Amino acid sequence: MTGRLIDALPLPVVTVDRSGRLSGANPAGEALIGGGLTGRHFVTALRRPAALDAVEAALGAVGPPERAEAPWEGDDGARWRMTATPGPGGGAVLCFEDVTAGAAVDRQRREFVANVSHELRTPLTALTGFVETLRGPARDDPAARDRFLAVMAEEAARMNRLIADLLALSRVEAGAHERPAARIPLGPAVARALETLAGAAEAAGMAIRADLPPDGGAAVRADADQVVQVVTNLVENALKYGRSEGGTVAVTLDGPVDAPALRGTAMRLRVEDDGPGLDPVHLPRLAERFYRADGDGAASRSRGEGSGGTGLGLAIVKHIVHRHRGRLTFDGAPGKGLTATVLLPTD
Questions:
Q1: Average pLDDT, the chain
Q2: 341 and 229 in a common domain
Q3: φ and ψ at 345, to 5 degrees?
Q4: Where is the Histidine kinase domain (predicted)?
Q5: Which run of H or E residues covers position 38?
Q6: Does the pLDDT at position 295 exceed 80?
Q7: Is the pLDDT of residue 240 over 80?
Q8: At 152, which CATH number?
Q9: At which of 124, 146, 174 does a domain end?
Q10: Which of 125, 170, 174, 192 has the largest CB neighbor count within 10 A?
Q11: Rounded mean pLDDT, 131-140
Q12: How far apart are CA 265 and CA 245, in angstroms?
């Protein structure tokens, strides 16, 4: 009966008898550690120091039997948590829990903290250096003082933008599971965003060409302010990396269009620049936080270095679109610019 219960468990399970030999495993356990191991001593069957220590603790090899845990990495790179529990009448039961997803989240969290630290350290280092210079050699040099103060103000503004984007991203993530309830046409929100970006386009020597439905388009469940932020971030990205001095950013809103990925119809927003483009290998990762796409004409497309951005704009767009149960995709190639497409369901 015990053997049948173990076989029915979805998690990998391996049993060890009081002599330290493997006495059984369910199919999931054999798939993880290998078949034909029954009767072999756990030392030769498991071959991982941390796992061996956990089994010894459960068997009471060096003290009273006690429950112990150890990491386990599968041959396919998956990460598991092995729990060795003392069994009745001696022996031990080894249960393996897949923690691959949790490990990936931890890695992303560490990378995020490292990236934020880097992005804040750069302007802080510049500010510290200029403060020292103003206290020393430039103390009595008005021209240098004014120049350094201007740079310090720019670096302070950069930190302020980063903090503002971090707070915006946090707010979007906090409401990710709450789809907007109000139904609105997207046209007015898109037009509002483009109106505020006219000055930035003029300063960059570029033009924004808009093609919006006269009636605003079909109504969708959406947060108007977040739609404005999506358009703002996408167009700002296009202005930064499009063809300066005479370049054009085309913004199109149409639909409803068929959207198989959403199993229905959707309003479609497209933002297209005529810049240098980038290698398609970077497209799936463009909306990652602080992702940097290096390449001819594509360096720092998603990261703020050298562009005045924070590296979070496209990540904010991705999370807003996901909150609306929509899809965000990118299309482009070297010399062909970049097109960002947002689909928001009409249901």
A1: 85
A2: yes
A3: -65, 145
A4: 115-347
A5: none
A6: no
A7: yes
A8: 1.10.287.130
A9: 174
A10: 192
A11: 81
A12: 37
Q: What is the residue range of 338's domain?
A: 183-345
- Where are any strands of DSSP class E within the chain? 13-16, 22-25, 68-73, 79-86, 92-98, 183-185, 207-211, 219-221, 248-259, 264-273, 327-332, 338-345
Average of per-residue pLDDT across 231-254 = 90
Q: Is the peptide bond before 256 cis (omega within 30 degrees of 0)?
A: yes
Residues 38 and 162 in one domain: no
What is the distance between the alpha carbons of residues 295 and 299, in angstroms, rounded to a whole number? 5
Query: Count of CB atoms within 10 A of residue 227's CB?
Result: 25
Task: Decide if pLDDT at 105 tops 90.
Answer: no
Query: Residue 1: pLDDT above 50?
Result: no
CB distance 193 to 213 below 8 Å: no
Q: How many domains does the chain have?
A: 3
Q: Under 8 Å CB-to-CB from 100, ≥6 apart: which residues?
A: 78, 79, 80
206 and 238 inside one domain: yes
3-state secondary structure of 48: coil
Task: Check pLDDT > 50 for residue 306.
Answer: no
What tokens appear for 43 in the block?
A: 């030392």
How many angstroms separate the CA atoms of 317 and 328, rounded? 8
Is residue 277 within 8 A of residue 336, CB to CB? The reply is: yes
Report whether 55 contacts 94 (CB < 8 A). Answer: yes
